[in-house]
Design a protein that fits this description.
Layout lengths: L28 E4 L7 E3 L2 E7 L3 E8 L3 E8 L3 E5 L4 E5 L2 E5 L3 E5 L2 E7 L3 E8 L3 H4 L31 E4 L11 E4 L4 E4 L3 E2 L17 E7 L2 E6 L13 E5 L3 E5 L4 E6 L4 E8 L4 H4 L16
Antiparallel strand pairs: 1-19, 2-3, 3-4, 4-11, 5-10, 6-9, 6-11, 7-8, 7-10, 9-12, 13-14, 14-21, 15-21, 16-19, 16-21, 17-18, 17-20
Protein name: 5-deoxy-glucuronate isomerase
Organism: Pseudooceanicola atlanticus
InterPro entries: RmlC-like_jellyroll, RmlC_Cupin_sf
Length: 299
């Protein structure tokens, strides 16, 4: 259910939704980076880790010159740089990535260095088991969520493997939802900021049948409204919840929980939505995925 001003109202309807299966209703996963202790605290900086079913999110506040290496990285990962830039070394090549960018780094050995320090978010799949085990909610997925399909990567990028990066300085466009980029493992939507609170008469309650949504707050404050659908088993039922989170923070919303989010801070509020693997419905909308020419969809 979307307000008519929301571009997602144009998504193709899937037909009548099936009744939720029983025994699959899970809890949302929350991490308050501004309040809780980091999982990693060393000379390079502080890093907070939270996982979803298929992914690991690492939020880092780096020291100047902080370097973050991955050895034998099993698959492609994302690096979101909302402030300053970074140097990314991979396969003997060095790529200078400016600030306010999103980069994708191939599998193998790599090093991300933030000369001036600052904030950085990296997104990995749970094939990075060393990171998954360090997450604040590492045990949150010990019970399998069988309604979420096993992760499968999307096709390799056109032109072969290399570090690719994209500016987030993309003008808003009527009919396009946010600023969406994808790689073989992730879809990242850097939403347009809200100045002040969101209009409460234009909310967007909706749900996903079989994939999670991670909402990363990078500035401001947000209230996430969650409603668990009733199944035939009362053990699945939950009270409605409102989760209010400052920035930086992350919330992982499980399917099929109905959800909508309201920017509630008095100044700039900015959210980044993360999906692993990429979403097909967003990818099918012409012009929505800004780097679609680099990363093809599955056949």
């Amino acid at each position: 259910m979307y307000d008519k001003s929301d571009p997602r109202a144009a998504l193709a309807p899937k037909g009548a939704p099936a009744a939720p299966s029983t025994g699959l209703i899970a809890e949302a996963q929350e991490s308050y980076f501004y309040r809780d202790a980091p999982q990693i605290d060393d000379a390079a900086g502080q890093t907070w880790l939270i996982r979803g079913h298929n992914f690991v999110l690492a939020w880092t506040q780096a020291q100047p010159g902080g370097s973050f290496a991955r050895k034998d990285q099993p698959d492609e990962y994302a690096v979101l740089l909302p402030e300053g830039g970074a140097t990314i070394e991979w396969n003997g090549d060095v790529t200078e990535v400016p600030g306010f960018s999103l980069a994708f780094v191939p599998a193998g050995d790599s090093v991300v260095t933030l000369k001036d320090g600052g904030s950085m978010t990296r997104l990995f799949t749970t094939k990075s088991t060393d990171l998954a085990e360090q997450c604040s909610n590492a045990r949150g997925y010990d019970t399998p969520r069988t309604h979420i399909p096993a992760f499968e990567p999307w096709p390799d990028p056109k032109g072969g493997w290399k570090v690719r990066h994209y500016s987030l300085d993309v003008p808003k466009e009527e009919g396009r939802f946010g600023r969406i980029f994808r790689c073989t493992t992730m879809m990242v939507n850097v939403l347009d900021p809200f100045e002040g609170p969101r209009d409460p008469s234009k909310m967007s309650p909706h749900h996903h049948d079989d994939f999670e949504q991670c909402s990363l707050a990078i500035t401001g404050e947000f209230s996430h409204y969650l409603r668990w659908p009733w199944t035939t088993d009362m053990a699945d039922w939950r009270e409605d919840r409102t989760v209010t989170m400052g920035a930086p923070s992350a919330l992982v919303i499980p399917p099929p929980v109905i959800h909508t989010t309201r920017a509630s801070g008095p100044d700039t509020n900015q959210l980044v939505d993360i999906f692993c693997p990429p979403r097909t419905d967003f990818s099918e909308k012409p012009g929505w995925v800004l780097n679609a020419d680099d990363y093809p969809m599955p056949s």
